[in-house]
UniProtKB/TrEMBL annotation:
Keywords: FAD, Flavoprotein, Oxidoreductase, Pyridine nucleotide biosynthesis. It comes from the Bacteria. Residues 7-382 form the FAD-dependent oxidoreductase 2 FAD-binding domain. The lineage of its organism: Bacteria, Pseudomonadati, Pseudomonadota, Gammaproteobacteria, Oceanospirillales. It comes from Halomonas alimentaria. SUPFAM superfamilies: FAD/NAD(P)-binding domain, Succinate dehydrogenase/fumarate reductase flavoprotein C-terminal domain, Succinate dehydrogenase/fumarate reductase flavoprotein, catalytic domain. One of its GO terms (cellular component) is cytoplasm. Its EC number is 1.4.3.16. It catalyses: L-aspartate + O2 = iminosuccinate + H2O2. It is found in: Cytoplasm. Catalyzes the oxidation of L-aspartate to iminoaspartate. Residues 425-509 form the Fumarate reductase/succinate dehydrogenase flavoprotein-like C-terminal domain. This is L-aspartate oxidase.
Length: 523
């Protein structure tokens, strides 16, 4: 059933979507498609903070170089420079909104807010709100969005595909309401802010991670996807098989936390001179190797030496959460394990969030801007959300209007039983976790490609085609994105950043190129 035309349609209500809505709404009407479940998405659970050059003793060039080093030769330097240079203004904008960042009252502080340091950074440049920065950002942004008269929030719809006209332009989205009925939302401009693809894996750092649905919806319209093989695993997720996922922030290591194996031995100094502050890909692989060497299911992150006062001051959320799980981190080390955390790849965009499909934009983790290269440096993700959402808004404010034309609805899939859906998704996640995770091998990738293709065919045969259904459509998007991820990993004949393959362990081309792939490449 078609509804009235919308000016700017934003799909996703994390930090990127909320910032974009606020920045564009003074000039254009905004419809924000924001399911209530977004509160369990990645943005709210971001703990560490936002990286930006704020201290007088820090330098723009230093942040740029740290980012380029972490990206392992695959960053787009222009995108890095653009992001870092826009960072201070973006933080000032947040301060103007009233985000309650933690202040620094220590004598001699050269910046009024406390700045911490995280892996890969050569200086303290992470502004934060204690250890719950994402929650502080989300609460502040949501309050401003709710109060803006030009932003219409829809929390009763789930996007299952994008609409396209005969000229190939994006013309809005097809959604399902709470009763499963299809509703078209035609729009002049559509922005994906749907998050990453960590949900392709069994263990993640978010209770309800995205599984790349937005990436695949863009690909269905012909958009290019880039660098899908670079899936970041956060080194330190709380190990609790019976509980919900919970991230132990990079800032814990930034403040002096030490990694120990199950025998209480520190192992990072022997692996990298930066020890626990090495980039995440290095630390995650080291933990994975140590777990295999000691036949253990986790390692420990120890902060006992910091003292109770410092622990309670800097990490109140982590302290309280661990206490609720029966772990007193003042007296005992924290059991941790790597878990899927952030997608460095996604929908290829320019510095304004534009994709190669007209009138379709992407911001936040769903996008691949070139900032992260082969490995995201800690706390550059929220910075990217802020900078590119504001840049995209600036373009949309000046965008010329193109009259809407008839847009055919995307095709969705028929329903399947909940048990079948759960079993299919678990099989997909099991393959990705076993064969396409921290360490990949040629044989495992080949097996993953074959198994996922067979699973796709099984779903087609069982579910067929028919009326749209949200859960099955989500799985269908996710499975095809998983296959594209495997294809990208098989095509990269080197080890670089987050993509480590012992069968080709060294860097390849001295001038590496991003991997680009389209949905048609699966045919």
């Amino acid at each position: 059933m078609p509804h009235a035309n919308h000016d700017v349609l934003i799909i996703g209500g994390g930090v990127a979507g909320l910032v974009l809505a606020l920045e564009v709404a003074d000039q254009r009407g905004v419809t924000l498609l924001r399911p209530a479940s977004d509160d369990r998405g990645a943005s709210r659970w971001a703990q560490g903070g936002i990286a930006a050059v704020l201290s007088p003793s820090d330098h723009i060039e230093a942040h740029i170089q740290d980012t380029l080093v972490a990206g392992d030769g695959l960053c787009d330097e222009a995108a890095v420079r653009f992001t870092v240079e826009q960072g201070p203004a973006a933080i000032q904008w947040l301060l103007g909104l009233g985000v309650p960042f933690t202040r620094d009252a220590s004598p001699g502080a050269d910046y009024p807010y406390h700045l911490t340091r995280e892996g890969g950074h050569g200086a303290r440049r992470i502004i934060h709100a204690a250890d719950a920065t994402g929650r502080a950002l989300m609460d502040t942004l949501k309050a401003h969005v709710a109060a803006h008269p030009a932003i219409h929030i829809r929390d009763d719809l789930t996007a299952i595909g994008l609409l396209q006209d005969d000229a190939g332009r994006c013309r809005g989205a097809r959604c399902l309401d709470t009763d499963g009925q299809p509703i078209d939302l035609p729009a002049h401009d559509t922005v994906l802010a749907t998050g990453g693809a960590s949900g392709l894996y069994r263990h993640t750092t978010s209770p309800q991670p995205a599984s790349g649905e937005g990436m695949l919806m863009a690909a269905e319209l012909g958009a290019t996807l880039m660098n899908l093989e670079f899936q970041q695993f956060h080194p330190t997720c709380l190990y609790d098989p019976q509980g919900t996922p919970f991230l132990i922030s990079e800032a814990v290591r930034g403040e002096g936390g030490r990694l120990l194996n199950i025998h209480g031995e520190r192992f990072m100094p022997a692996i990298d001179p930066r020890a626990e502050l090495a980039p995440r890909d290095v630390v995650a692989r080291a933990i994975d190797a140590e777990m295999q060497r000691t036949a253990s299911e986790h390692v420990f992150l120890d902060v006992r030496h910091l003292g109770e006062a410092a622990i309670r001051e800097h990490f109140p959320t982590i302290y309280a959460h661990c206490a609720g799980r029966g772990i007193d981190i003042v007296k005992a080390p924290i059991p941790v394990v790597p878990a899927a955390h952030y997608s460095c790849g996604g929908v290829a965009t320019d510095q304004h969030g534009a994709t190669d499909v007209a009138h379709l934009f992407a911001v936040g983790e769903v996008a691949c801007t070139g900032l992260h290269g082969a490995n995201r440096m800690a706390s550059n993700s929220l910075l990217e959300c802020l900078v590119f959402a504001r840049s995209c808004a600036a373009m949309l404010q000046d965008a010329s209007r193109v009259p809407l034309v008839s847009a055919p609805a995307t095709r969705a899939r028929a329903e399947a039983t909940p048990a079948a859906l759960a079993e299919w998704r678990e099989r997909m996640r099991g393959v990705m976790s076993a064969r396409v995770a921290i360490v990949r091998r040629d044989a495992g990738l080949a097996e993953a490609a074959e198994t996922l293709a067979e699973l796709q065919q099984e779903i087609v045969e069982v579910a067929g085609r028919g009326q749209p259904a949200a859960e099955l459509t989500s799985l269908w998007h996710s499975l095809r994105l998983a296959r594209l991820t495997v294809a990208s990993a098989r095509a990269r004949r080197e080890s670089r950043g987050l993509h480590y393959n012992p069968d080709c362990p060294h860097h390849g081309d001295p001038l590496p190129r991003p991997s680009r792939i389209r949905l048609s490449d699966l045919d």
